[in-house]
TrEMBL record, chains A, B:
UniProt cross-references to CDD domains, sorted A to Z: ATZ_TRZ_like
GO function terms (MF aspect): hydrolase activity, acting on carbon-nitrogen (but not peptide) bonds
Organism from which the protein derives: Kribbella sindirgiensis
Keywords, alphabetical: Hydrolase
Signal peptide: none
Cross-referenced Pfam families: Amidohydro_1
Positions of the Amidohydrolase-related domain: 67-411
Protein known as: Amidohydrolase
Length: 450, 450
């Protein structure tokens, strides 16, 4: 049995409704992979203390630190860190057709593994304890996640153009990954409503067997318009009639979700969620951001993500959280919407739901997984602190994260990874980076024409 | 005579037109306050080297670092760091009338000095070497700037409601600050077109005597509409007919600048600039951002700023630069506009112009002031690097800045301030923070009703 005590720490409390708050001077008691108690400092005898018989494995001094639920990156393509900065100043069509999909001809298992290791390092150092991934060679991503100590939900990506054998292989990998490690879950990963046929979506839903379907849909207003013009239905209607919503979906982006789609999504709100990655929508000049207000009114959980670093340039979930708050206020022309508490709830409970891990992660309370980030708010850019919630949403940097636990394991201690040799991870990525962005091969894994 | 040699560093080159680039393996030679040469590493004998007779004061190893022009915060109210996080989730009316202007009743010289010291610390540690300020007790801000080693242009703020003596005192302070220190320049600081009468704006322009007028104007579309309804003219037309544009202005925000204002601004483009702080426009749900494309087409220089931390929550100019790129692409529905090069040019040459320091700062070349930030891009969130310009705009963090020079003086070395005791600066700010946000006094320094 492993034990960790985080002593004398402030704790972010995120209730289901109402205001978030910070409780000061708390002890967080961790046993194996779970939080077993949170008590006022010194109120409960520490394991290993005189008079108790339990061995104490580690005490972390939380004095001056704020404990927050480990962040969740609710939609990403982690190995794409290898293409960071290689596809700039392009609209979505050119981004896909002139850069990303031609580059992805270069994917190999090794290159994906190297990229995933770098991604896990970046995320853990920034306080991200779970990521929800959608990419090729997902077994390599699983290996990197297991090695690094991070938690992941992995969806092996497929296009209909790849043929039935490739799709079957993706299904098989989802099944295989589901049983590999307690920190790994797996989802089905059709790429999008515009790259996977309705027939294949239907087959995916039929074979879901309790697993979620993670896919891109209604990414832009233009995609929705094209879908209506070509097929007479919105992408969300496609997801309903193919059974994807019935099976349970994580919809990436959804900026093109229409008012008329909301009642549909409401019917499946117990099993269907949306991930929002707004930095990307601005950078690609997509014209809209996710209609989070409407989705929340329909009872649909929304999480926060970065998307891949080939467009977001970082896997910094703090940045993504801030962008959600800012762009939602802008979208609704309402500075009193997406408050500090709304934003923190979305980033914690919402993202946990998007990861398919409601009740497991997302909140610091007894019984939940011990996925915890300790944040140091003492640097000048956060001081003085009139409201620590405002610091978390509007001034904190990923570099303010000092210690991170996932499933009770200390994976970052004093800003250093404990699980991987960062120098080696960076060197490998640097060595292989040029091979990923090489356009001399010709061809592309897909063509964007929604 | 003081000498610094930054050896074997990469250098960001920002031409007036066209693509920015990074030159690798350069030596930057600094003498006293200026850059005297930038040469391929080892190409020019270092001062102090055998065979030369000049004494060498300091060599900085630039290996693995990228030298960029010290950042410029082209519009801020630095002491408002003392109100960081104290006015959240409010629209602009309530932000002013329920929080900020009632809080500013509490301003004292000491509190402003303490806030300005903290602000200078935050900015220098993040690579900001110049800030353009607009606030009360500007002599205290000057003292903090001089002490910290940062460069500043300071505009003592005044409202017409404060009466003629207060306005005269503000004019007097501008004159006084102008001669205080080589790193300090001063501008005239009427608050805004809606808080200063046309008569007082005219008097300001008449007494400018070659100094610039830094003020808020056309901050929102609503302000412009109100101005047209009440007075029959846009705020920019007010600035023209009162002689402010003729004298030379730095216009903060300008989100409400109309198409018809552009030909007016074009006439004064040799002396009138605009500062854009887009995080604030989203956070306050102002509905628009600065029309930078139109302004640039009219030949008007635009700089990047944070505004005060009571709304921006940081004085992080990297964050402000990124928000400019993202929101401009969004505004123009054009992912190919505000490219990496456009953005970096705005943040360097544009901000230097906004600071009234064209030809002095903003570019790394011989003859310019030695205001230099050395950035370490080796951390996972920037790696691998396919394009260092993309790293600067979309992935770098202020915490990646390791060394900073202002006017040839090393003010940050290995992420530590050399000029101030940071512990003391933070402790003072913490001690006084509650006094700034106390609303029990009643009253307000002004009322927002544009």
């Amino acid at each position: 049995m492993s034990r960790v005590l985080i002593r004398n720490v402030s704790v972010l409390v995120v209730p289901e409704q109402g205001e978030c708050r910070v409780d000061e001077a708390q002890d967080i008691h961790v046993q194996d992979d779970r939080i077993v108690a949170i008590t006022p400092t010194g109120g409960l005898a520490a394991p290993g203390a005189p008079g108790t018989r339990e061995p104490l494995f580690e005490v972390i001094d939380g004095d001056g630190l704020l404990a927050v639920p480990g962040l969740v990156n609710s939609h990403t393509h982690s190995p794409m860190v290898m293409m960071r900065g290689a596809a700039e100043d392009l609209a979505i069509e050119d981004w896909f057709n002139r850069r990303i999909w031609p580059m992805e001809v270069n994917l190999t298992a090794e290159r994906v593994r190297v990229g995933a290791r770098l991604a896990c390092a970046e995320m853990l150092l920034g306080g991200v304890t779970t990521f929800v991934d959608h990419y090729f060679h997902a077994d390599q991503i699983a290996a990197a996640a297991i090695e690094s100590g991070i938690r992941a939900d992995l969806a092996p990506t497929f296009f209909s153009s790849a043929g039935q054998d490739a799709i079957d292989a993706a299904f098989e990998m989802t099944r295989d990954l589901s049983t590999r490690h307690p920190r790994i879950t797996a989802s089905l990963g059709p790429h999008a409503t515009y790259t996977v046929t309705d027939e294949d979506l239907r087959r995916t839903a039929d074979r879901a067997d309790g697993r979620r379907i993670h896919l891109h849909a209604a990414e832009t207003v233009d995609q929705t318009r094209a879908s209506v013009e070509k097929h007479g239905v919105t992408p969300i209607q496609v997801l309903e009639r193919t059974g994807v919503l019935e099976a349970g979906a994580l919809i990436a982006h959804g900026c093109g979700i229409r008012e008329e789609d909301l009642p549909i999504l409401q019917r499946y709100a117990d099993r269907t969620t949306v991930a929002s990655c707004p930095k990307v929508y601005l950078k690609l000049a997509m014209g809209e951001v996710t209609p989070i207000k409407g989705l929340r009114s329909a009872g649909v959980d929304v999480g926060v993500g970065t998307d891949g670093a080939a467009v977001h340039n970082t896997l910094d979930v703090w940045e993504a959280i801030r962008m959600v708050a800012l762009t939602q206020k802008q979208r609704e022309h309402d500075a009193e919407w997406m408050t500090l508490s709304d934003t923190l709830r979305l980033a914690t409970r919402g993202s946990a739901a998007a990861a398919g891990l409601t009740d497991q992660i997302g909140v610091l309370e007894p019984g939940r997984q011990a996925d915890i980030a300790l944040v140091d708010l003492s640097a000048p850019h956060n001081q003085p602190i009139h409201d620590p919630r405002a610091a978390l949403v509007y001034s904190v940097r990923a570099s303010d994260v000092v210690t991170v636990l996932v499933a009770g394991q200390v994976v970052v201690r004093d800003r250093q990874l404990t699980t991987m040799d960062l120098t080696e991870v960076l060197a490998e990525a640097k060595d292989l980076a040029h091979t990923l962005v090489d356009l001399s091969q010709g061809g592309a894994v897909q063509h964007y024409a929604p």
